[in-house]
Amino acid sequence: MRVLFTNQVIIRILDEMPLSTEHENTPREGNIPHHFAYRVEGATFETMQSETWKFAQHPATHYRFVTGWTCLDVLSSKEPTFRVVKRRPVSTFD
Prior knowledge:
The chain has 94 residues and is mainly beta. Helices cover 11% and strands 31% of the residues. The strands form two sheets. A four-stranded antiparallel β-sheet has the order 2-5-4-3, with no helix packed on it. The mean pLDDT is 80.
């Protein structure tokens, strides 16, 4: 799966484990089995960004992508596009 944003974004990449230690106002429910992309409202990552960026990119949306090992948070004023890509075999090194 390829996720593409065509505008300026703010991102954060972290292991999933720290997500459980963030004290957010968002409820601890809503993760759906076998899904990886979510829209998040009111999370700490979004609220701590500068007022100037929020004004310039208004309205920005917080997207969270959970892969099973990593979490990618993205703030963007445009929706991403999704595309299924062909899997490539892993190269071997001699």
